[in-house]
Amino acid sequence: MKWVYFGKLYRSEFQAGCLAKRLEQDGWIYGYHDPHSVEIFRSRKGRYGVRFIP
After folding, report:
1. How far is the C-alpha of 6 from the C-alpha of 46, rounded, in Å?
2. Which residues, 6 or more positions from 15, have their beta carbon under 8 angstroms from its beta carbon?
3. Residue ranges making up the domain that contains 25
4. Domain of life, per the record (predicted)?
5. What pLDDT digit, counting tens, does each position of 1-54 carry?
6. 9: how many CB neighbours lie within 10 A of its CB?
7. Three-class SS state of 9
8. How many domains would you assign to the chain?
9. Is 48 helix (H, G, I), strand (E, B) or coil?
10. What is the pLDDT of residue 54?
11. Which residues neighbour 36 within 8 Å (Cβ) at sequence distance 6 or greater?
12. Which residues of 18-51 are buried (b: 16+ CB within 10 A; e: fewer)?
């Protein structure tokens, strides 16, 4: 399986962490499968993003 990158980079790790938690928790609310793995990564320019394996 390959990583799927969320389309936005954030200035702080906290903002990216909020999105990562939302991706993990929204599956049971909306009835779709949870991603296998969700990860926060840091880009070369120092911004933070979220990637996941569906």
Report:
1. 16
2. 48
3. 4-53
4. Bacteria
5. 798 898 899 999 999 999 999 888 876 666 677 788 889 999 999 999 999 888
6. 17
7. coil
8. 1
9. strand
10. 80
11. 1, 52, 53, 54
12. ebbeebeeeeeeeeeeebeebebeeeeeebbbbb
End-to-end CA distance of the chain: give it in Å, rounded.
8
Work out the number of other CB atoms within 10 angstroms of the CB of residue 15.
16
Interatomic CA distance for residues 36 and 22, integer angstroms: 14
CB 51 within 8 A of CB 8: no
pLDDT for res 30:
67
**Which pair of structure tokens corresponds to residue 48?**
């933070």
Length of the chain equals 54
Helix (H) or strand (E) holding 51: strand 48-53
Question: What span, in angstroms and rounded, lies between the C-alpha atoms of 53 and 39?
Answer: 9
